[in-house]
Design brief:
- The two termini are 24 Å apart.
- It is built from nine helices and twelve strands.
- Strands 1-8-2-3-4-5-12-11-10-9 form a ten-stranded antiparallel β-barrel. It has a two-stranded antiparallel sheet with strand order 6-7.
- It is an alpha+beta fold.
């Protein structure tokens, strides 16, 4: 490492410490100038609606993320709000490689003034292949009539307070809470999608796809299947071989190790937070001071002025660095603004398709930040999954849920580079 680079890193140590949790590709130091800072401050003053920030933590009790507690969560398996009418077929698969999508994140976002959205969730799924995500960049710009093949999908579900799945009263968290009815049998490998295929051997393991049946067999089920078949007929009679038993009772728990870690999402309002329970933060004024120092180093040692893209990137970093561990930014308001890490790769208004039901325009509701990949322990390799932000656009009236289990909304992905 050269002396020049060492001096730059030493001077910028504090800001790098604040941004250490950002799972983003290395970038040349970029500095906001005074004018761009003032513009950002003016934009913030114009925002009437507060932004809600989401942070992840390990659940104190895994059962607290069960569907009848209406959790917001990331990783693991989804807590299907409607446990019966879950997406199937092509809706559950990557439109590029054809493999089943993996659960990414779920936000519980009820609408108080809407009777049929007393309970409401938005669940995001994506293919873990970076190659598919890169191809998705082309697909997301296609018009609906062109039938884009997406590797990132988001599903909205909502229920009235009185519904066939949950009690009218809220959970009491006393150990006796339970849903009113059970859901469909899910895949024994991913625990995510409907298990419509049955193992021809044990007749117990269920699968959403041929791919997951093969993965399960090669990993653990070859041995499990033989063990099940060796059970006495009395045990088989108790459990039945029709898939009605809980597959987790007879299928190894190792089958779920390929999923992203299951985490609980807690939320706080931006600008109204304290440091309790969060990692130590670097004050904003200290960040700005270090940015100005970095700018001087760039000019002194490279003779380079920060470009417009670099200034935009630095503005994004400075905003995020106030709460470096945030993984989600939520605001259900037509005036809410997306925090874009890059100028390039932002959608035009015409790139956001209208609601497929009411044909009204969709609006930003929340965005997923790349810090989530850090908590998922995704490696920072050249072919590893990575993004700059995933932005979710939804129907502002949250329409059309009288007879449909899930409605697909729209996700726009801006890559990190």
């Amino acid at each position: 490492m050269g002396d020049t680079q060492m001096e730059i890193e030493e001077e910028g140590h504090n800001i790098e410490k604040a941004l250490a949790r950002l799972h983003l590709p290395p970038q040349e130091l970029a500095i906001r100038d005074t004018e761009s800072e003032e513009d950002d401050e003016e934009d913030e003053e114009k925002e009437d609606d507060p932004m809600i920030l989401g942070f992840v933590q390990k659940p104190e009790n895994p059962h607290s993320l069960a569907r009848h507690f209406f959790p917001s969560k990331a990783g693991g398996t989804p807590a299907w709000l409607d446990p019966i009418n879950i997406p199937t077929g092509l809706d559950s698969c990557c439109g590029i490689c054809g493999n089943p999508l993996q659960f990414l994140i779920q936000v519980y976002a009820p609408i108080e003034e809407k009777d049929d959205a007393f309970h409401r969730t938005l669940s995001v799924f994506m293919c873990p292949s970076m190659a598919c995500l890169q191809q998705d960049q082309i697909e997301q710009r296609k018009l609906p009539m062109e039938k884009p093949s997406r590797s990132v999908k988001v599903f909205r579900c909502q229920l009235a307070r009185e519904n066939p799945f949950y009690p009218v009263d809220p959970p009491k968290h006393n150990g006796h809470d339970a849903p009113l009815s059970s859901g469909v049998t899910l895949c024994s490998w991913c625990g995510t999608w409907r298990g419509g295929k049955i193992c021809s051997g044990c007749k117990m393991a269920r699968y959403c796809s041929r791919e997951h049946q093969v993965d399960h067999w090669r990993t653990v089920h070859a041995a499990d299947c033989r063990q099940i078949l060796s059970m006495s007929t009395s045990v088989v009679a108790v459990h039945g071989l029709t898939g009605n038993c809980n597959s987790s009772q007879v299928v190894s728990a190792d089958a779920s190790t390929h999923l992203w870690p299951e985490l609980e999402i807690i939320d706080e309002e931006e600008g109204d937070m304290n440091s309790e329970g969060l990692d130590e933060q670097v004050p904003e004024n200290e960040i700005a001071a270090n940015q100005r120092k970095d700018e001087e180093f760039l000019r002194q040692f490279t003779g380079m002025e920060a470009s417009r893209d670099q200034k935009h990137w630095a503005s994004f970093q400075a905003r995020i660095s106030r709460y470096p561990d945030q993984v989600l930014r939520y605001c259900r308001s037509k005036n809410a603004k997306v925090l874009w890490p890059r100028l390039e790769g932002q959608p035009r208004i015409t790139d956001i398709p209208k609601c497929t039901l009411c044909e009204g325009p969709r609006y930003f509701e929340f965005q997923i930040l790349p810090q989530l990949l850090y908590f998922f322990k995704v490696q920072n390799d050249s072919d590893s999954l990575d993004w700059g932000t995933i932005v979710i656009y939804t129907c502002p009236t949250s329409c059309g849920m009288n007879s449909l289990g899930y409605v697909q909304e729209f996700a726009w992905v801006q890559l990190a580079s």
